[in-house]
Design goal:
Structural class: alpha/beta
Bound molecules: iron/sulfur cluster
CATH superfamily: Aldolase class I
CATH architecture: Alpha-Beta Barrel
Number of strands: 8
Radius of gyration: 20 Å
Strand content: 5-15%
Number of domains: 1
Largest sheet: 8 strands, mixed
Order of helices and strands: EHEHEHEHHHEHEHHEEHHHHHH
Length: about 375
């Protein structure tokens, strides 16, 4: 059986804000509109059972990530039922985390997350002018101020050392990396996760002029220099992973390096789907042909299937440019979604290929310069 290392549970199918770039609502897939707004108690009970069974079947720890939409739309009562059920079903060392836009964070929610050992990551893209270009509410207003209030509650909670795992930001290549970095440092986050914008060869990511252009690579290289020059840097996972991979180590992030990640998604109706970022390719790209549901199927049955095996293999690129690329072990061919093209499917290098090559080359340069300056 192929190992599952992350179960992403969509506990709410709607969102209280309306980010312009969101792959769930703004890139062509409309399935969210047919989903139950929240995971029901029946589906929660089924979820606890299938996850307990999976844990015993694969004898290997997996992470549970609560996602949406906005997962805190579930509300504290239902969240308490869900967390209690899953904690009862799984060994205590299984990591639980919740990815939120932060606006609905309350003391009650934080106390619950503390009780059931569930950490929180908050999505925010940078200072107000950067964040509020895209992270807007349903009335078109910026969300920065409200997100900051949520982060403040998280920072001030008595259990914040455990609860506050970090921030997640989508890169805006038109922003000033100095301003963005300095802003994030003021939030005292344990780490920052940076994401490339969704996009593919048929629908170019925002800010990229062509396949050969390097806007994201240049932005990340400026950030790399700020990062390396900071004696007390904010941990940036994307750069840490890339540096580790250049040095011959392993990454920890899907879409980089050649490690395998087994990710499944459970939707609010209990259906089992693929990694939901695939939604941004075309309507239904994240769905299996086989209609699995945790209400009627066991997860090992999914993990043992040939269709799941094909989805798992999709992590690795098939384009000849990638297979012969000297940087394949570092870049990994990028996320499958970034390889998509309407006429050739996923059989392409990442749309961020030139950016990745630019960044990798600069990381090599900086490492070589550091070795020289240390007389190595
Ligand atoms: S996407 Fe580009 S850099 Fe990455 S492995 Fe493929 S060819 Fe190499």
């Amino acid at each position: 059986m192929l190992a599952i290392d992350t179960v992403l549970v969509k506990v709410a199918s709607r969102c209280n804000i309306n980010c312009r770039y969101c792959y769930v609502y703004s890139m062509g897939d409309t399935r969210w509109a047919t989903m139950p707004k929240h995971i029901s108690d029946t589906t929660t009970t089924a979820l606890a059972k299938v996850l307990g069974d999976l844990s015993r079947a694969q004898q290997r720890r997996f992470a549970v990530v609560f996602h949406g939409g906005e997962p805190l739309l579930l509300g504290p009562k239902k969240l308490a039922i869900l967390l209690a059920a899953l904690r009862r079903a799984l060994p205590s060392d299984y990591p639980f985390s919740l990815q939120t836009n932060g606006i609905l964070i309350t003391e009650e929610i934080l106390d619950l997350c503390s009780e059931y050992r569930t950490s929180l990551g908050v999505s925010i893209d940078g200072p107000p002018d950067v964040n509020d270009r895209y992270r807007i509410d349903h009335a078109g207003k910026g969300t920065h101020e409200k997100i900051l209030k949520g982060i403040e509650k998280l920072q001030n909670h008595r259990d914040s050392d455990f609860l506050y795992t970090g921030l997640l930001a989508v890169i805006d290549p038109e922003s000033d990396p100095y301003k963005v970095y300095n802003f994030f440092k003021t939030l005292n986050a344990p780490s920052l996760e940076l994401l490339y914008r969704d996009g593919n060869h048929s629908q170019f990511p925002y800010g990229k002029a062509s396949f050969q252009s390097t806007e994201y690579g240049q932005w990340l290289t400026v950030l790399l220099d700020i990062y390396l020059a900071d004696p007390k840097p904010l941990r940036i996972r994307l750069l840490d992973d890339m540096i580790k991979l250049v040095l011959g180590g392993y990454g920890t992030k899907e879409g980089m390096g050649t490690s395998n990640y087994g990710i499944i998604v459970i939707d609010t109706d209990g259906s089992v789907t693929k990694n939901d970022t695939l939604k941004s390719a075309f309507n239904g790209a994240d769905r299996f042909t086989q209609q699995w549901s945790i209400l009627t199927h066991a997860l090992p049955e999914v993990a043992n299937s040939s269709e799941f095996s094909r989805y798992y293999t999709l992590q690795h690129p098939t384009a000849s440019a990638c297979l012969s690329c000297p940087e394949l072990s570092i870049c990994g061919g990028g996320m499958p979604i970034h390889r998509w093209r309407e006429d050739s499917g996923y059989h392409n290098p990442s749309v961020y290929c030139a950016d990745q090559l630019f960044l990798i080359e600069n990381i090599r340069d900086r490492i070589a310069a550091l070795l020289v300056s240390h007389g190595a």
